[in-house]
Structure formats: structure tokens, C-alpha cells
Backbone:
């Protein structure tokens, strides 16, 4: 399945939190200096300046401006220090083009701003409903577009690349080629009969590559189905076609059951030891 690829800067989002602190974006690559005496205004990168949020928790996130390259949704997701997490909430359906002041309610329970990111998703079926077929809009580097809610900064490549991307696979290959620096790694094949081997035991810090050798798409994720809440970051969050790979580093000790989100009858257990 192909992804719509766009340049960074084609989607520029400004983020606003409920404290009414406004964020705004620029379409050029020149960022003005902060106004004199305003120490809260910071330069983030080549495409965005923000006013830093004044609260650590929020119950809604508002995007002040975004150019949608295709119809879709603004999606708020969790993030930890190393990888993207589950979807928290989504916006209403958005048409292609410039959109402003899009508020995404997060529920009654305040959420910490440092664990949230905002992403742009396309509407794969053009049905105006967010579903499993909808994917993050990607850049020419094939990485999702994502910004931290707290700072407005772009999410680093290593976090976006942790799981289903060429950078993670390249890291594995680099480890193999550098004696004494090799990261522990295992491979699980996804076949027409399921995962092989389905059950493995690894030490914490082991990188596991799931290789799709079946004739169908693969979507590896932790139990339970369909929310994948046992180990929320162990989740592809999208399909991978035949011949592709998904990589996950198991750093939490425990026994983690998993399954294929598309065909949940196929699954296994990965036991992680110290």
C-alpha cells in the first residue's frame, strides 16, 4: 500500500493548549527573533515558532492552523521517551487545504502535555470516518509528521523510526557489522499460517524484527484486541505489506502476548527477562 509523500513544511501546524496559549506556524524558512522582553517566545525549527505553554496538563488540544494535503484528521497520540504510543483522540473530519482553530477534546481527565503529540492522518477510504485504514500523512523520508504538544517541536526521527522504518532496520544491520556493539536481536516471520516462531524468550533490550512473508498485510500488536493495551507501545499502528518489516525493542520485563490486528487468530507470546 502506498503512502502520500509530501515535503516537510507542506504541513505546518500551530498548537494551542487550554491555557489559551497560542501557537502559530510560518510557511517560509525564516523565523523572526523573539520580541524584546518576551522570554516565552522560542524558535523551534525552520517552520514553527511558539509561545511555550504555561500548564503541564490539558483537557483539550487546539491546532491554530494546518494545511491538510488531503482530507483527513488531526490525531493526538501518546509518546514516551523512545516511541509513539496509542491514539488518545481525533478531530472531526477535515477537508484538504488550510484549516484553523481545530479543537480536539481529550476527556475530563487532564493529560500531561509532555506525553502528547499531534499528527496528521489521511482519510484512506474518503468515508469521513477514522478507521484502521487511515494512516499518518508522511514526508518524502517516509516518516509521519508529528509535533509535541508541550513544546511545538518536531518529534525526533529516532522516535518516529522506532518500529516500522528503515532507520530501525539500519540500526540492526549496523549492530551486526560492528563486533562488540551488536544489539541483541531476534526475527519472527509472519506466514500464511501465523507467526514463526510464535513464542520466544529474550533479554530486556532485545530488538525483534517481524518480517511479513505472508500473502496478506501484517499488523503486529500487543493484546488485548483491538485496543492493544497490554503493552501500548508494542503496536505497528498500521499495515505492512508482504516483504516489509516491523521492529520493536522489548525493554520491559514480562510476558507479552501479541496478535495480528488484521487476523487476530494468529498470535504468540514474547517473554522478556532481565
Residues:
Amino acid at each position: 500500500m502506498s503512502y502520500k509523500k509530501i515535503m516537510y513544511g507542506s504541513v505546518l501546524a500551530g498548537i494551542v493548549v487550554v491555557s489559551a496559549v497560542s501557537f502559530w506556524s510560518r510557511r517560509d524558512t525564516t523565523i523572526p527573533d523573539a520580541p524584546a522582553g518576551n522570554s516565552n517566545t522560542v524558535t523551534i525549527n525552520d517552520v514553527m515558532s511558539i509561545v511555550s505553554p504555561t500548564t503541564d496538563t490539558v483537557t483539550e488540544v487546539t491546532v491554530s492552523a494546518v494545511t491538510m494535503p488531503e482530507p483527513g484528521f488531526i490525531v493526538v497520540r501518546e509518546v514516551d521517551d523512545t516511541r509513539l504510543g496509542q491514539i488518545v483522540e481525533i478531530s472531526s473530519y477535515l477537508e484538504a487545504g488550510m484549516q484553523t482553530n481545530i479543537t480536539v477534546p481529550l476527556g475530563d481527565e487532564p493529560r500531561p502535555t509532555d506525553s502528547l503529540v499531534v499528527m496528521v492522518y489521511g482519510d484512506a477510504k474518503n468515508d469521513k470516518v477514522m478507521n484502521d485504514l487511515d494512516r499518518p500523512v508522511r514526508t518524502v523520508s517516509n516518516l509521519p509528521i508529528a509535533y509535541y504538544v508541550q513544546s511545538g517541536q518536531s518529534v525526533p526521527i529516532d522516535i518516529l523510526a522506532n518500529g516500522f522504518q528503515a532507520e530501525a532496520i539500519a540500526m540492526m544491520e549496523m549492530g551486526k557489522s560492528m563486533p562488540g556493539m551488536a544489539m541483541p536481536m531476534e526475527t519472527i516471520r509472519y506466514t500464511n499460517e501465523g507467526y514463526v516462531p510464535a513464542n520466544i524468550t529474550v533479554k530486556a533490550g532485545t530488538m525483534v524484527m517481524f518480517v511479513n512473508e505472508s500473502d496478506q498485510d501484517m499488523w503486529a500488536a500487543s493484546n488485548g484486541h483491538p485496543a492493544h493495551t497490554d503493552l501500548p507501545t508494542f503496536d505497528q499502528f498500521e499495515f505492512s505489506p508482504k516483504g516489509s518489516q516491523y521492529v520493536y525493542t522489548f525493554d520491559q520485563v514480562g510476558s507479552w502476548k501479541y496478535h495480528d490486528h488484521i487476523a487476530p487468530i494468529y498470535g504468540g507470546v514474547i517473554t522478556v527477562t532481565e
Residues 5-156 form one domain. The longest helix spans residues 166-177. The chain is about 5% helix and 40% strand. The chain has a mean pLDDT of 74.
